[in-house]
Amino acid sequence: MKIVVDTENGLAPWRQVHDQVVHAVTTGALAEGTRLPPIRQLARDLGLASGTVARAYRELEAAGWVATARARGTVVTIPVGRPDREALLGSAAAGYAAQARDLGAGLGAALAAVRAAWPE
Predict the structure, then answer these.
(1) What is the phi/psi pair of residue 71, to 5°?
(2) Would you kindly state where each structural domain of the chain is located, as residue ranges?
(3) Which residues of 75-109 are buried (b: 16+ CB within 10 A; e: fewer)?
């Protein structure tokens, strides 16, 4: 799994890490039991502060996506009642709608942007 953080998109870096891990687990790219990189290593690889990655891991653990044990490190778990694809799509849409509103875009312009970005 490759995590990419874009500091220009307006979404907090910890949230980008969090969301990419959730996406990878949901799509099966990260299987249950897969060990995530140590916080310091991932922070160094992404050019982020360790505290930023630590926050992402804390949020993932609080939601049941990962578990951290001293001897095993941070490993992927499958949360009980994890959101399905429709719930994740709804969450992504809500985030996009909020960003579009912040940019001053109306519904028509936001939908046009989605249509333009949609691969045919």
Answers:
(1) -80, -30
(2) 13-76, 85-117
(3) ebbeeeeeeeeeebeeeeeeeeeeebeeeeeeeee
In one-letter notation, the amino acid at residue 86 is E
Average pLDDT on 3-12 reads 91
For residues 75 and 81, the answer to whether their CB atoms sit within 8 Å is no
Does 13-76 carry CATH code 1.10.10.10?
A: yes
Coil, strand or helix: which one is 105? coil
| Residue (of 21, 34, 28) closest to 63 by Cα position | 21
> How many Cα atoms occupy the beta-carbon half-sphere of 18 within 13 Å?
19
pLDDT digits (tens, 9 = 90+) for 12-65: 999 999 999 998 988 889 999 999 999 999 999 999 999 999 999 999 999 889
